[in-house]
Design a protein that fits this description.
The protein is built from 13 helices and 11 strands. By secondary structure, the protein is α/β, with parallel strands linked by helices.
Length: 361
């Protein structure tokens, strides 16, 4: 690949453009909003000039409902030799492309499984896709040239290609992305009019559950509209479990011993099922999940403190597998939770205590 076009310079389109330009690809940028394209260009994502000849690959980075229309326009103009998109839903855009008479032999659906709570070109990052799955949904008439172009795009962005059927993809993302987004928003909505005292008690648990609730509702409405039926199916199953949990909790709150025992069994059952489901989520580098020990260290809210802590861990010969920070309300201190291999716990704690760090139990 020598040249590419990115049509739509939001978070995903601009991130892909930044990744490609970093690898020496000439990238041409387009957007219905010229200011967005110029912003992306100013970040080093490419140029807003028109290509003098068809590019090797055009990346359609627009909402799912617009993919078919934009693809048809790009092909009418002869923008590229091959085309892909990055929409988070695949079956609908493909059907629209077919209905509009698009050349589907030189088009392959794609979906990088990456994103952020922020949107727009200013939120873009060249490393957004590194190590992330990137789904490709070829059809029986997809040419080898087009498939190879899409695979090269995935490789240049540092992602991992996953080839799937479009319908299977939409069912999968409803389960692991779209329904969780709505559920996070539903939990966060409970806080909108909650007593201020209750909100101030928020800890890491509610922060984890509601993190993605900060996402742009307009962007998600486009996504959910394109996959509404499948997402509704997932939420309907969740609603059954929620009603069961409500019934179990009512039994626990009652006076009858039999009812309380039934409630205990119901809550324990759903939580154990949750344990089993969470354990299936791939761990580091896609390997089976690993159970780490957590070392909690209090640090001051000053520049360089976190970096100094990481250097101390490196000096002790301990690899930090994951990190989370719980900020203390009203205090200039944070609790850093370092996830490390169980065999390294004593080694790290001893080294940090020796160097004066406040290690918490």
């Amino acid at each position: 690949m020598r040249t590419a076009a990115v049509v739509g310079t939001g978070l995903i389109g601009t991130s892909a453009a930044l990744a490609l330009t970093a690898r020496g690809i000439a990238v041409y940028l387009e957007d219905a909003d010229p200011d967005a394209a110029h912003t992306a260009a100013s970040l080093g994502a490419g140029t807003t000039d028109e290509p003098s000849e068809p590019v090797d690959l055009a990346i359609v980075a627009v909402p799912p409902a617009l993919v078919g229309t934009v693809l048809a326009d790009c092909q009418r103009r002869g923008l590229a030799r091959s085309y892909t998109d990055v929409a988070s839903v695949k079956a609908g855009p493909r059907a629209e492309a077919v209905a509009l008479g698009c050349d589907t032999a030189h088009y392959i659906g794609g979906h990088p499984m990456a994103g952020r709570e922020q949107s727009g070109p200013l939120a873009a990052r060249a490393d957004l896709f590194e190590g992330r799955p990137w789904v490709l949904t070829p059809t029986a008439d997809t040419t080898t040239e087009t498939l190879n172009a899409a695979l090269e795009l995935v490789a240049l962005c540092g992602a991992m290609p996953v080839v799937m059927d479009a319908g299977a993809h939409d069912r999968a993302v409803a389960l692991v992305s779209h329904a969780p987004q709505l559920f996070s928003s539903l939990v966060a909505a409970r806080l909108e009019h909650a007593d201020e005292t209750a909100v101030r008690l928020a800890g890491q648990g509610v922060r984890d559950v509601t993190r993605i609730a900060a996402s742009d509702p307009r962007m998600w409405l486009d996504i959910l509209s394109a996959n509404a039926g499948v997402v509704a199916d997932v939420l309907e199953e969740l609603a059954v479990d929620l009603n069961t949990a409500v019934g179990a909790l009512r039994s626990l709150a009652g006076d009858e011993e039999t009812g309380r025992r039934k409630g205990t069994d119901g809550i324990e059952s759903v939580m154990r099922r949750g344990n089993n489901g969470q354990a299936r989520i791939p761990g580091k580098h896609g390997a089976p999940p690993t159970r780490y020990e957590t070392v909690v260290v209090a640090i001051g809210d000053q520049p360089g403190e976190l970096g100094r802590l990481f250097r101390e861990a490196a000096r002790a010969g301990v690899n930090i597998e994951d990190v989370a920070i719980d900020h203390s309300a009203g205090r200039q201190v944070g609790l850093v939770q370092l996830s490390i291999a169980p065999t390294a716990t004593h080694q790290l704690v001893s080294a940090l205590v020796e160097r004066g760090w406040d290690v918490r139990d």
